[in-house]
Amino acid sequence: MIFNEEHKSQPITKLQVNDAFKKIKANKGSAGVDGITIETVSNNPRKYLYPLWNRMASGSYFPKPVRQVLISKGNGKMRPLGIPTVLDRVAQQVIAAELENDVDKYFSPNSFGYRPNKSAHQAIEQCRINCMKSSWVIDLDIKGFFDNIDHELLLKSVAHYTQKKHILLYVKRWIEAAVELPDGTIKHPQGKGTPQGGVISPVLANIFMDIVFDKWISKRNPENSFERYADDIIVHCKNIKEALRLLEAIKERFSTCKLELNREKTKIVYCRRNQKRQPPFKVYYQKFDFLGYTFKPRMEMKGGKIRMGFTPAISQKSISRITADLFRMKIHRWVHFPLSKIAALLRLKIRGWLNYYGVFRKSEMRRLFKVLNQRLVKWVRNKYKRFKRKHWYYALKHLKGTAKSYPNMFEHWKYEGFRP
After folding, report:
1. At a CB cut-off of 8 Å and minimum separation 6, what does 230 contact?
2. Which SS3 state, helix, strand or coil, does residue 222 take?
3. Whole-angstrom distance, CA of residue 309 vs CA of residue 129
4. How far is CA 138 from the centre of its chain?
5. What's the CA gap between 315 and 312, in Å, rounded?
6. CB-based contacts of 414: which residues, under 8 Å, 6+ apart?
7. Is 302 strand, coil or helix?
8. Could you report the per-residue pLDDT of 329-384, keeping only the tens digit for each?
9. Pairing of strands 226-229, 293-302
């Protein structure tokens, strides 16, 4: 039987589905509840992608339950992550690409998360500049943001930007999709929440927060600059009274939109940028974390003079998370590999750390690479018998010699300050 695209009720083409699958394939990822992997779909696209297009184009597509996995947040707590099936991710990518193309032009320039030509580094740089202009910061943390988005308000937000029936139809079906918990039980959403991990979730989160926060604060307090990356928000204020009033207004606004601020993590921070400048009362917070970086008073060189600034650098939480990963990898036991092979296995990871955390004050990464070098020293002692019964300093001396002879072996060895 031949299916002609022009006879379908929904304006979705085969090309859109094929392009969406290419993006899903490039992003990789595991299988959902049906066990079908990306490789399975790639090996037989006509068997899987053609029926998906046929159902989407005719309006008969319904998503399968989302598989939930728990990942560590680094503070002992677990975060639920939703993994849709591969075909559901393809379907979400089709709608997400079309929806993003329609709505992105309406978003605030202060929104940086999951947007084309926007990055976390741009958000951090703008935050750094605004911290030098304003003395106070409101560090907002929304309690269980993805788990508490109200479905009715979310659909109203999407309908505000687009009247395309197929987009509204499938968005409603996705947010109402069941969730398969780790123990195998099926949970149905109770009118709120969108699985964190779905392809469509970041776009929906941006649409929701654009109306709930971005446009609201730009209209109510246009003089207050801010940066938002998904649900991570930093608001800048001139003085403490303004910060206190604005924080109360934000709490009320979020409460109206059925969101709640995390009282423990939401705080007002003083941006101390001068050694002499200090308010005439006790300040509880003088630093905050944003997108893996810690903003706090630091000495910096400017115009040939040393002065105190308020600048970002890799956070202790990020260092702890990465070092925990290094310990879990048990590099010191890879004695069956030569050092060059270990360098090759770690190359992409180290390069990723340097590319993200090394943009601002790269020297602060020294603590991270000190731990990695210590892991390599332990590998030397396990690898070579002559170092086992000697003091660890001899293994360190051997590694120093190797780093001096082959400075390009490890990515971090290319920087003299990060060598053992």
Report:
1. 113, 114, 145, 202, 205, 206, 209
2. coil
3. 11
4. 20
5. 8
6. 407, 408
7. strand
8. 999 999 999 999 999 999 999 999 999 999 999 999 999 999 999 999 999 999 99
9. unpaired
Between 193 and 361, where is the model more confident? 361
Q: How is residue 72 annotated by DSSP?
A: E
Contact present, 55 and 169 (Cβ < 8 Å): no
Work out the burial of residue 411: count CB atoms within 10 Å of its CB; fewer than 13 is exposed, 13-18 middle, 19 or more buried.
buried
By three-state DSSP, how is residue 71 classified? Answer: strand
Q: DSSP assignment, residue 356?
A: H
Query: Which is nearest to 339 in space by CA: 408, 409, 420, 418?
Result: 409
- CA 179 – CA 131 distance, rounded (Å): 41
DSSP state for residue 6 in the 8-state scheme: G
What are all long-range contacts of 337-341, with beta carbons under 8 Å and residues at least 24 apart? 339/376, 339/379, 339/402, 339/409, 340/409
Q: What is the largest CA-CA distance in the chain?
A: 80
Contact 279, 273 (CB under 8 A): no
Per DSSP, which regions of 244-393 are E strands? 267-270, 288-290, 293-302, 305-314
Residue whose tokens read 């109770």? 190
pTM of the model: 0.90
| pLDDT for residue 412 is more than 80 | yes
Report the amino acid identity of residue 49.
L
The Cα–Cα gap between 365 and 375 comes to 16
Report pLDDT digits (tens) over 70-94: 887 766 677 888 899 999 999 999 9
3-state helix, strand, coil in the chain (%, to 5): 50, 15, 35
Q: How far apart are CA 46 and CA 35, in angstroms?
A: 18
Both tokens assigned to 249? 């207004």
From CA 367, how far away is CA 352, in angstroms rounded?
17
